[in-house]
């Protein structure tokens, strides 16, 4: 019997009335994948050392397709890989970090899987679908990639972005207007650069909405942003992909105006994706119609 991390161990006793038991293999004690195994049982979520007998067999994750493998291998509540939902697109953050570290070190998927003592099919699933792998899987992957499980999980996300290692061969490219509009329309948090009444520059983060060619946000009538109404302001939104050392930014420049029409205010309020994070009474909608829209993106030179 041979197994990889993430495979399912099934015990089906021939004893009449015996209960079938299964669990995820979360630890190997031999590099060739032979017993014993550390198994996290689906019925108790406990991990025990198991020496499989003749009534046990292994379901290999790579024997199923990516869309069915997680469900076939993990029917219980164990904190293993969760099957991607029907609307899931692309890998999760852990998978992207694993792939980025692997590629940065010039390792193939097969070599990484061998070092981590798991099947290439299992590693392919982790890299290609949103997943929440077990601690044992992360530890083995981190060891194979020369990093830490904490780093693969995103430890340090509270630090200012941009402290990671730069790409060996970055490419800085300009975004066209359509690309800028598409990135703006993802909504979220942007920054408004204004000139304060005392003449000093200031930058204020805001939750924003996009309606057509207009950027809108809420503020308080007595705020710094309200004082900037009628003047030219800059609005910036960006995204830094720390694990992949790449990102983009979009800059819109235009005149700030107050939204006064009742119907427009009502529509903005009803369609808002969130309330202002800063709290308080912020019922004044300010809009910016972009007169200039530019952006840039950093990607690997080979892309």
Give descriptors for this structure.
303 residues; single chain; five-stranded antiparallel beta sheet; six-stranded antiparallel beta barrel; alpha+beta
Characterise the protein shown here.
It is a single chain. A hairpin with a 5-residue loop joins strand 3 and strand 4 (47-50). Helix 2 packs across helix 4 (120-128), helix 3 crosses helix 4 (120-128) and helix 3 packs across helix 5 (135-145). The protein is built from nine helices and 13 strands. With 303 residues, it is of the alpha+beta class. Helix content is 23%, strand content 31%. The strands form two sheets. A six-stranded antiparallel barrel has the order 7-8-9-12-11-10. It has a five-stranded antiparallel beta sheet with strand order 4-3-2-1-5. The chain is elongated. The protein has helices at residues 69-73, 93-104, 109-116, 120-128, 135-145, 149-152, 177-184, 224-227, 262-271, and strands spanning 8-11, 21-28, 37-41, 47-50, 56-59, 170-175, 188-195, 201-211, 214-219, 232-241, 246-258, 284-289, 292-300.
């Amino acid at each position: 019997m041979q197994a990889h991390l993430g495979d399912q161990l099934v015990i089906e006793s021939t004893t009449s009335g015996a209960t079938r038991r299964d669990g995820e293999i979360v630890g190997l004690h031999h590099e060739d994948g032979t017993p014993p195994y550390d198994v996290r049982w689906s019925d108790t979520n406990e991990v025990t050392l198991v020496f499989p007998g003749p009534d046990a067999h292994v379901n290999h994750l790579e024997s199923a397709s990516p869309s069915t493998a997680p469900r076939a291998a993990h029917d219980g509540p164990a904190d293993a890989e969760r099957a991607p939902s029907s609307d899931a697109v692309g890998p999760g953050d852990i998978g992207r970090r694993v792939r980025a570290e692997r590629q940065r070190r010039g390792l193939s998927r097969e070599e990484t899987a061998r070092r981590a003592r798991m099947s290439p099919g299992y590693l392919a699933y982790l890299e290609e679908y949103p997943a929440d792998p077990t601690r044992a899987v992360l530890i083995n992957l981190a060891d194979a990639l020369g990093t830490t499980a904490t780093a693969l999980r995103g430890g340090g996300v509270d630090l200012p972005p941009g402290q990671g290692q730069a790409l060996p061969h970055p490419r800085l490219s300009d975004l066209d207007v359509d690309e800028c509009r598409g990135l703006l329309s993802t909504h979220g948090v942007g920054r408004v650069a204004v000139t304060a009444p005392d003449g000093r520059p200031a930058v204020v983060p805001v939750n924003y909405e996009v309606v057509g060619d207009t950027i809108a946000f809420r503020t308080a009538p007595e705020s710094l942003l309200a004082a900037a109404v009628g003047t030219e302001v800059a609005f910036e939104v960006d995204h830094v992909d720390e694990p992949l050392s790449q990102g983009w930014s979009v800059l819109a420049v235009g005149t700030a105006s107050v939204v006064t029409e009742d119907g427009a205010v009502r529509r903005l309020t009803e369609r808002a994706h969130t309330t202002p994070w800063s709290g308080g009474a912020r019922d004044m909608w300010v809009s910016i119609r972009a007169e200039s829209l530019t952006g840039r993106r950093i990607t690997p030179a080979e892309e």
